[in-house]
User: Which sequence fits this backbone?
């Protein structure tokens, strides 16, 4: 039953919250879920839209994407909890102005649990090599007893140096509501650096950091997450890996996660098919294992 989810809540929230990449520049993988895990509110979603809205401006070409995923959360000796879902998204990219939309939905394979997350972003190149962007994320989950909603407004900028080196920074404000009774807010900061090349051999190397404060008025811990991304494109193939360190503020709980990407991604445009696998485990508290897989389809033009 879904009640078994509650001992996993802290670990599950941590696991998905780490999937905050694409702060300075977009990944080589056109679209994939952000390491889905239950009860994580606005952290669920896909990489059709980046975490820093300004980085959307460097995401050419335009793309439409769809994907399916599943996730297993397990804290022994309890039985595993399985979840499945899908995402759909579109981004339209031009030389000066771009926009992106995506929607993700997921549910528990057994019991009552439903979640959805929607993201909308716009970006603009205001100077050569300088883009600004704004985004709005809304999400909701419901287990039949508790209904939680979260909204996040984000504004950021990204600098493109020599079309290879990227710097990104964004700030945001989260709002939280549970059963229309409990409310809270908190500040968010994202920053990152990336190196990306084009051609028959393509590289994407990035270091991204996400910092979220504690919510006001409600009991919810803030956290820090750092992600190292290494992706390489060889001809029409792309291979990638991410290593993530996550830690709650004021808590000994932390999480280490590995993400693997592999797929067919034509260099310029066309149909791409990629797979994403992730596996993580917690330490410093109740041990848990978080793992999942996704199959992603995108058409770039």
Assistant:
């Amino acid at each position: 039953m879904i009640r078994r989810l509650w001992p996993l809540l802290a670990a599950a929230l941590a696991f998905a919250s780490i999937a905050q990449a694409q702060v300075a520049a977009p990944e080589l993988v056109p679209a994939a879920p952000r390491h889905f895990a239950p009860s994580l509110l606005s952290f669920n979603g896909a990489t059709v839209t980046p975490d820093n809205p300004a980085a959307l401006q460097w995401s050419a070409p335009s793309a439409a994407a769809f994907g399916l995923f599943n996730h297993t959360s397990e804290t022994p000796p309890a039985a595993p909890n399985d979840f499945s879902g899908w995402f759909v998204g579109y981004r339209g990219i031009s030389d000066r102005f771009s926009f992106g939309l995506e929607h993700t939905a997921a549910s528990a394979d057994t019991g009552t649990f439903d979640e959805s997350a929607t993201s909308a972003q716009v970006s603009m190149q205001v100077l050569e090599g300088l883009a600004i962007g704004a985004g709005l994320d809304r999400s909701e989950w419901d287990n039949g007893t508790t209904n939680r909603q979260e909204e996040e407004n984000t504004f950021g900028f990204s600098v493109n140096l020599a079309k290879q080196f990227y710097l990104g920074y964004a700030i945001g404000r989260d709002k939280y509501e549970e059963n229309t009774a409990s409310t809270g807010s908190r500040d968010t900061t994202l920053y990152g650096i990336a190196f990306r090349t084009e051609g028959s051999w393509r590289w994407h190397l990035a270091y991204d950091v996400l910092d979220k404060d504690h919510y006001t008025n409600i009991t919810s811990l803030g956290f820090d997450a750092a992600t190292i991304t290494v992706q390489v494109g060889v001809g029409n193939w792309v291979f990638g890996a991410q290593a993530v360190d996550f830690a709650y503020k004021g808590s000994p709980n932390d999480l280490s996660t590995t993400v693997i990407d592999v797929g067919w991604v034509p260099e310029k445009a066309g149909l791409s098919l990629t797979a994403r696998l992730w596996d993580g485990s917690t330490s410093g508290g109740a041990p848990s294992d978080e793992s999942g897989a996704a199959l992603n389809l995108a058409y770039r033009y």
About this structure: The radius of gyration is 18 Å. The chain has one domain: 2-300. The chain is about 5% helix and 60% strand. The longest helix spans residues 9-17.
